[in-house]
Amino acid sequence: MNEVDHMLKGMFRVLEVFNFLDWSLGVLAKKIEVPESFSPEDLMCVLSYMDKSYIITGAAQSTLQDIKVPEYGGGYAYKSTCPATRNRYLFWRVCHDIVELWEESLDYDFTLNHVQFRFADTPVLEGLSVHETRQYVYILLATVSSVHRIRLPHPQQTQSIRSKPYSILSELTFQTLKEYHNLHILNSNLAGEGLPHTAATHLLSGDSGNAVFILGQTGGTLLVVKMYDMPFSVFTETIKNASLMNRLFTGFVPGMFRGMEGAETVTSLVVHELGGDVIAMGVCRDGKMRAWSCSKLQCILVHDILENTAEAGRKLNPGAQRHQIRSCTHGEEFTLGVYLNFNEKQLILIYQPSINNGQLILKHIKTVYPPQFDLVDFSLTTSYIWTLWTDASNDTQLLYASVDGEGEVKAPFDLSAVVLEQPPDKDVPLTDPYLDPKEVYLRELFTPNRFSAYTLRKALGIYRRSVEMSFVGDRDMWRLQEEVEAALREQVEARLNSDLSEEEIAQITMEAWATFYSHTLQYHQVGHKPVGIVGVGADRIIGIVRKQVVSWIRPMDALEILSLAPIESLNVTSLNGVLSEDTVVTAAVIALARPLRKIREILPPEVAAAFLLDLHHLQSPDQVGDSITASLLADSSNLGASLSQQLAGVTGIVGGLWGYLHALQLDMGMPDSLVLENGGLPPPQSVSEAFRGCAGASVISAVVAQMARVRLDLCRDLLLLQQVALQLGHQCRLTTDSVAQMRSTLLPKTSLLTQAYFALLHISTAAAIQASQATLDVGKRQLAALSLSEGPGVVLSPSGLGRPTAVLELFFMNSGGDYARSLAMPTITQSDANNSGADGEWSELLMPLSVTVSQLAWPISRCLLLVEWLVWGGQHGAVQEYVRLLQPWCEWNSCSRKFLLGVALLNQGEASKAAHLFMAAQDGIMTEDFLAIKVAGGGADTPPDQLRVMYCLRVIRLLEQSGHPDLALQVAQKGVSIASADHPSLSALYLVVFKHHLELQHHDEAFTALSSFPDPHRRRNCLRQLIISLHDRKCLKTLVNYQYGSLESDVVTILENRARSADILVNNYYDLLYAFHIRKHNYKKGACVMYECALRLNVEGLGEKGLRQQAKCYLACLNCLRHIPSEQAWILKPLPKASGESDDGSEKGSNGNGSKRSVSGTSVIPPLCRKKPQVKVLELKHIEREYELVHARLKMLKLQPDSQAAGGPLSANDTISLLTHGRLFREAVRLAKLFDLSVVPIFQGLANACLHPQPSQAHILREANGIIKEGDENEVWWNLLKDLLEEEEQGNQSVLHRTVCSVLLQHTTVLPTWLVNSYKLRNCGELLQLYVNHGLLEDGVRLACQYVDGILGHGTDQVGLRNALHSREAPVWMPYTALDKLLLELREVQQNKYFAELSRELNEKLQTYHTQLQKVSQDRVILLQG
Predict the structure, then answer these.
(1) What is the 3-state secondary structure (H, E, C) of 1296-1338?
(2) What pLDDT, in 10s, does the model give residues 1189-1221?
């Protein structure tokens, strides 16, 4: 990617780049003020007030205020000894008592690089100089009352300490200024000598840091101050006037009579070392050059300068400006340039000083006669002398001439003029009727490199006095724009009233904006006032120092010379081999320059602006040019004749036009050759950091903009010239072949180049936006979605520039600069070979890098780096406009640009348009490598169909990442339509179709896509996703009703797995699985599902809700089993694995591995054992029992919500216990009978309930236990006890009676009569035993007596006996054990009369019983014997 673009020496152009001296920059600048008072005891005292500091120097205010010194500026270029000093400069501006220093680098960005010194009411003299040693940088300056040596660390010394270079001015501290050995106060009280008015400074050779200050005084003497280190000392000496009479005149005649300045008063000084001596050379008011030896303290040379000119011997009157002298050092020699100003004329002479036999000799080299302008400054380099002027119109002129050659230069063309940047137009043309005037003015005000933020804030300060002057940066430029709009809106609203029409309101608005633009332009002109020129070396660094701007001067290329240089300076000799190797073609190119210049001169500015507007509106350039040409020829009758005459004199006009067009082609006619391969080669170390700073990027961007503007104008002029030639035809002596070639080839080619350069101009001048970090993160995610491993490097826009940043400038600061350095390597290498001393110097790198950046942005190429960076860098608006300008005509990368435009629109919320562009870009998948390789990820041998599918997949991923599933679905459907049936990515496309149909809730379409999957594995995964989504969306009917066919088993497996893995309380997949089986009439599986769900709910389902669900599951299970034949109405229940049991059912051995060994240690095969059953068969009755448990717990919860019935799985015993505790005795009895459990604990609980009733829950418990009768609370439970005893006590058993009575007796409760009577009927002896055990002797005696009476035949049926004691009846049982215990107890209490009576009564009864027993026994014996 090379362009053979030869730069002609001697042709230069000013490059306006805003390096602002903006004191509102906050951290970028600091001020140091030097007050007027001085205390000899303290050489320097610093008093700090916020950001200002006052340094004491000492001088009388009344004297010093009258001294007038010129305002000047200058600069210094560091020696290119290391990367930290390459392309690094120190500039200064001096205005009366203020010195401003700022350090600038084209390779790095600095902070705290602006410093301002203010010597209060103490003027600073000219002669400020900067010097380098290996360790320090010295700044030498002199005021009328002091000399200063500021020593700062050299950047090369501190490079290893810090990670990147920093400004040495940041090291300038108060301590540095207070160092006593760097300051000397002058004694200005010497009578008759006057005050200094000019000065020169010099640092002696070596690393000692010794400085010499030469001050020219008004009396004609020189004050020499020598400042030494090691040890510190200062010597002040005076060099008197050259002639003895002048000394006497000065010594004896008072100054009020002889005047302050004489003929020998020095007006300008320089100091150099020559021949081992320090020599001061100056030009005096009498026009003579004098030299003084600082060691001899005398004048060693007086030379009449006019003797070397044609004015020798003439008496010329001094002019309004002072004579000046400049010098340029090259090695051990130096060259002098002397400027003489007389009323009659001005002269510039160049001398070469030398020492011959101890004598100083001046060799005259050249004399230049400049025009009668006002000199601002001039500078001398080894190759050129540069002069900066102000003409009669107050416009700046920069003229230069070569130093080489002898004699006089009087011809005007030998003193060449540098092409200056045109200032902004005074009036903004409102040529676009579709734009609001406010938009037009805003575009002009905030165009990059047009106005600085400082200038805009100054203009805004007219409307708002409280303007914030501290915010800077790109984002704050938008804030500033809002402030401007608000201020002017208020200005317009203040002038409005209800009587104004719309036209009047529009006029007022336009006037307000025009006024603000005028104010801004005035401040801009003030800030651009030149104060000095900088020239270092041969011609590598030239700059104009203005009040707020540094203007760089660069060489021009051949096309700029043809367009801008004077016609007289163009010749075949200088241009031959540059544009063409053919001398005839070169001559034709030069000959065509005159008619081209003629067309440019006659073209009205408004027509030129309209031409650009038409290009902006995408009109064809040849059609626009045809109408302009017809209008020009119709308006001027002489134009056609003049142009036809000039064209007729051109030999080989077609060849000349081709010469122009070939030179205009940045792609050199080979668009495909501009494609980057593997990112280019890495640049060498000497170039890798070149122009990496903000200043360097702005310089490159400005150069590209200048080149694009000049070449666009040239294309326009060529277009109009060809239109003129075609319309005039035979008058231009064109042949038929020439006309045909011009019409068919040259004119379309010119039109194409015109559109290309218009796009390049737009992108180089369009303002960039400050992309947020969120926008950059979106770009990174999109790069990842497209599988682009590395995109163009993107960083944030630098802050603190104080101006809008151009898009191309930001591009160069990021990835574009790296690519440009790599691609410009051949040109840079060739330049380095031709100029070995330039190691990365800006003048050798500027034009190659600028041309390379232009090529990277050139539309007619396969390179898409710029558009890629615009997209991923967040410059979406710039992408839209750039692609809009290229789309109608540029066929290169048209589809790739559509794709990138789609990405930009996608990030701006225009997703539908983006998807349309993505699909339209697919047409270029086979012709454009960007789409085929970078986006689709294919290779050179990838089939076309596969490339298209891969492209669709990448686009789908991009749309998915941006959150647009509907658009991704459209792209996927398009991909399915173009993919073959056996394409490997077809499953991926169907997956996308399925996924996004599912996301958009198109369930039927998703199921259809699922059924079309060629990959079974993906089909199962998607089926699982479909089932989960339908379940989550409650579309259960849809899920169940689908005809799955061969996928039915997969559906069941998925549902079972989901049911067993999901939280049953959150997602109950069992219901869905049950419905699925019922829909398929598989009732047995439905029963299994519901039973499994019930089991899980028994463990996991807590609370009443869980119990209700569990009950429903049991009921559903029972219902399913009742729908199938009884012999099949069973299910299998897995049994939990016992501890120590292996997976196969066998028990493990003691060694843990299940194997048994003999005494010898060998393994013994265990005998076969029968496996334990792993499942249990459950029939209806088993499931019904489990349901009854749940039902009982629900009933318990309904009556007593705070009970523990809702917690965890419970057995039948646990449930009965809970029911008993909750006094649901009938339910407890029912469950106990159902599970064949004892009801004894229930009756124990019921007995306790009788003893401890709960009135608060009486009515609830009555209903729960089936009690209908009303009554007292105690009676209720006793009645329930009575009923249950009657119901549950089986036959003649008395277990329940014994249980109830035991509980009652334990609580010392009197047994109810009905209970005693019932118990006596069932087991009177057992009751007697209870009485005895509980110490109820009286009740026991009475019961025993009643029982004996019953035996004897009195009340036999009341004690549960079938018959009394009789010989003919069965024997009657007598509870002897209980009676013995009772009698024993009675004997213990015989002392009690009552119990003694009871004992007597019982004994009598027993005696009667024994008597009767004996008789009956005898009768029985007799009866049996008979």
Answers:
(1) HHHHHHHHHHHCCCCCCHHHHHHHHHHHHHHHHHHHHHCCCHH
(2) 888 888 887 777 766 656 667 788 888 888 888
